[in-house]
Amino acid sequence: MSELVTNAIRYGREPVTLAVRQVGARVRVEVTDANPTPPAVVDTATEQLATGRRGLTLVAGLCRRWGWEPSGEGKRVWCEI
To answer: What whole-number distance in Å separates Cα of residue 45 and Cα of residue 6?
Structure first.
């Protein structure tokens, strides 16, 4: 959850919202912001990484599913655990 919220605050635009809900046997975390630019996933196999830009790679590795979709004038990034 913190990775999605941090990305929305760092790269998105206000307002940033967080929603957590149960979907069947899973928990879905959704973070919306007003920036329509799609989230960028860094290829950790080819990119020299310091201490940042790993958030979505971590989300993809730890969650069952994740993705994004347009939402109003911005976007919604979500993951299911």
So the answer is: 23
Q: Which two tokens stand for residue 57?
A: 């790679």
| Residue type (1 letter), 34 | A
Average pLDDT value for residue range 50-61: 77
Residue pair 33/52 in contact (Cβ under 8 Å)? The answer is no
DSSP state of 12: S
Q: How far is it, in rounded angstroms, from Cα 60 to Cα 58? A: 5
Integer Cα distance of 63 and 81 in angstroms: 5
Domain ranges for the chain = 2-80
Q: Distance between CA atoms of 68 and 25, rounded to whole angstroms?
A: 21
Arithmetic mean of pLDDT, 58-66:
91
Give just the sign of the alpha carbon dihedral 11, 12, 16, 20. Answer: negative
**Beta strands across the sheet bearing 17-23:** 17-23, 26-33, 74-80, 65-71
